[in-house]
Amino acid sequence: MPNPAMLVIGAGDATGGAIARRFAREGYTACVTRRREAELAPLLETIRADGGQAHGFGCDARDETQMVALFDTIEEQVGPLEAVVFNIGANVNFPIRDTTARVYRKVWEMAAFAGFLTGREAARVMVPRQRGTLIFTGATASLRGGKGFSAFAGAKFALRALAQSLARELGPEGIHVAHPVIDGAIDTAFIRDNFPDRYALKDRAGILDPEHIADQYWMLHNQPRDAWTHELDLRPWMETF
Fold it and tell me: Is the pTM higher than 0.90?
């Protein structure tokens, strides 16, 4: 029998990659996507060097045809999907008068519509088996809109509503749907290079470690059905809320 498979849609260098590595260490075959497949090479090499199994796929998560084909390929050639994580960011900041229709639409497509396609396709393959975990990564903007975040907050609010609807629909079918809210800066090169004052808080545990986020995703996947968490908020101890 093949190893169980897991999928990260939007496996970047930080959180998405850490989640894939965490599941691979537990014996799952990690399937990871980015729009450009070549960018996945370092992550795949790391997982394999650590003794895990991994496959990379170039996929535009906004494209229905590509998403249907992705799930079919994994189910047919890799193994049964036991966990699916939607982790596309799409974080932008523009004053409302500078937010073009193209920007607003693209952010919605990336952070909300792509989430819908992910949820639908995950349900298609998981429901017949009556098991599986579907996790949608949320953000501060999932809970409150901030200055300059009209596009991002609108999309993340929509993703949160999708997660709530799917939890109510798919829970009775044995599918655990969760929405972790990542409320704080994450230890990434972007934060290091663009927000050095915030990055300086790393030594005080003031920014989120992607490996620790990944541990919580693994925990969600292993929760018993009588004690499922739907929404989990993760933030550094010094973050206000």
Answer: yes
